[in-house]
């Protein structure tokens, strides 16, 4: 009783704070100086049409690298938590409600048609990160959704986790290596001027941003796939 | 105007998430509460970046470089939210992994079964 009173009190007080925020908020009429300089600098200085990617990859690339490290840490810790002793219910001597049966013909055919299309879409998203909405993180998540579809359709299918780990480590090492090349050949860590900027809006443009996007996409896709695989009962 | 509506929606989602975290006893529902909390925060951050009549900060034929400054929304909150979404997904994955282990050891999803560390 006293606990639910505290809960209601907490919600009401936080609601009051939020209400003052919502009432006192007025929409921006023009960009703030920092955003203005980003919007000017990204197309002129980096040659990227998508300003958000321009901020994420070269300007705040150190943040992005840290975020990738967080993802790696999560994949490792999920493996650590679920690694040993997490087995199938029937192996633990419990009665299983219903024997697992293979997925139906419709599900199998549907996922066989969809999986390649999803992969192509992921590649499109990753490669167009500097031109339109998209980029490494988003494309990597789409790759992981393809893996999830396969896992749902074929629950017994074994994913080659060793390959995924190697691909992921390789992509991470190349990402850092690209950053160090930027340190030597251009203005700083993860600078994209190590390659020519090319024509603005062209597919191969914006210097090293497409390469960084690809590496990021491979890394995120592999990491998310490994996390998905860890959640299955290990044989 | 649009961002006021979106901001209010995000703040309401945060409140709903907090309510779910505080009242529910099932761990899965608590995790859903945390996810709502995070999603509400993302919506609030994106709403703060909106500029009246702005469009996405992607330059193309219809948005030449000369007009960009007067017509785009703030790109920085969008970039930050991309980061925040990934971190939120990571946190959810760890919470779910712990839930699986807790269910393995306690055979229940209720947090009332976990009294060892309660003072």
Walk me through the topology:
The complex is a heterodimer of chains A (235) and B (119).
Chain A: H1 2-24, H2 33-46, H3 51-59, H4 61-83, H5 105-127, H6 136-153, H7 161-185, H8 209-230
Helix pairs in contact in A: 2-3, 3-4, 4-8, 5-6, 6-8, 7-8
Chain B: H1 2-23, H2 27-48, H3 65-71, H4 75-106
Helix pairs in contact in B: 1-2, 2-4
Helix content of chain A: 55-70%
Average per-residue pLDDT of chain A, rounded, comes to: 81
- Measured by DSSP, the beta-strand proportion of chain A falls in under 5%
> Biggest interface, and residues per chain?
A-B, 55 and 47 residues
The proportion of strand residues of chain B reads under 5%
How many structurally independent domains of chain A?
1
Number of helices of chain A: 8
Number of E-type strands of chain A: 0
Q: State the separation between the terminal residues of chain B, measured CA to CA.
A: 48 Å
Low-pLDDT segments of chain B: none
CATH class of chain B: Mainly Alpha
Number of helices of chain B: 4
**How many beta-strand segments of chain B?**
0
Contiguous low-pLDDT stretches of chain A (5 residues minimum) are: none
Defining key terms:
heterodimer; A: mainly alpha; 8 helices; globular; B: 119 residues; mainly alpha
Describe, in plain words, how this protein is organized in 3D.
The complex is a heterodimer of chains A (235) and B (119). Chain A is an all-alpha fold and 235 residues long. Chain A has one domain. Chain A is 67% helix and 0% strand. The longest helix of chain A is centred in the last third of the chain and has 25 residues, at 161-185. Chain B is mostly helical and 119 residues long. Chain B has one domain (2-55, 67-113): Helix Hairpins (Orthogonal Bundle). In chain B, α1 (2-23) packs antiparallel against α2 (27-48) and α2 packs antiparallel against α4. The longest helix of chain B has 32 residues, at 75-106. The mean pLDDT of chain B is 86. Chains A and B meet through α1, α2, α3, α4 and α8 of A and α1, α3 and α4 of B.
């Amino acid at each position: 009783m006293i606990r639910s009173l505290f809960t209601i009190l907490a919600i009401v007080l936080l609601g009051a704070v939020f209400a003052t925020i919502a009432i006192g908020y007025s929409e921006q009429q023009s960009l703030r100086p920092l955003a203005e300089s980003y919007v000017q600098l990204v197309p002129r200085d980096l040659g990227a049409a998508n300003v958000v990617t321009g901020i994420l990859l070269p300007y705040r690339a150190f943040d992005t690298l840290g975020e990738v490290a967080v993802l790696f840490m999560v994949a490792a810790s999920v493996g650590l938590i679920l690694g040993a002793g997490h087995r199938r219910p029937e192996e633990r001597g419990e009665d299983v409600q219903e024997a697992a049966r293979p997925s139906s013909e419709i599900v199998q055919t549907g996922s066989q048609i969809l999986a390649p299309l999803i992969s192509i879409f992921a590649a499109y998203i990753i490669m167009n990160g500097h031109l339109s909405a998209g980029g490494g993180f988003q494309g990597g998540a789409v790759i992981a959704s393809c893996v999830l579809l396969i896992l749902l359709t074929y629950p017994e299918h074994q994913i080659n986790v060793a390959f995924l780990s190697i691909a992921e480590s390789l992509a991470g090492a190349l990402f850092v290596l690209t950053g160090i090349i930027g340190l030597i050949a251009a203005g700083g860590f993860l600078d994209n001027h190590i390659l020519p900027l090319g024509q603005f809006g062209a597919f191969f443009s914006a210097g090293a941003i497409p390469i960084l996007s690809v590496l990021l996409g491979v890394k995120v896709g592999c990491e998310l796939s490994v996390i998905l695989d860890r959640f299955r009962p290990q044989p | 105007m649009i961002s006021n509506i979106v901001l209010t929606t995000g703040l309401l989602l945060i409140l709903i998430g907090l309510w779910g975290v505080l009242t529910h006893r099932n761990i899965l529902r608590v995790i859903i509460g945390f996810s709502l909390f995070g999603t509400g925060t993302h919506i609030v951050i994106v709403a703060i970046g909106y500029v009246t009549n702005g469009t996405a900060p992607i330059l193309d034929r219809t948005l030449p470089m000369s007009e960009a400054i007067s017509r785009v929304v703030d790109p920085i909150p969008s970039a930050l939210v991309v980061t925040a979404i990934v971190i939120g997904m990571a946190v959810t994955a760890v919470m779910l992994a712990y839930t699986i282990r807790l269910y393995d050891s306690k055979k229940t999803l209720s947090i009332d079964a976990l009294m060892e560390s309660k003072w």
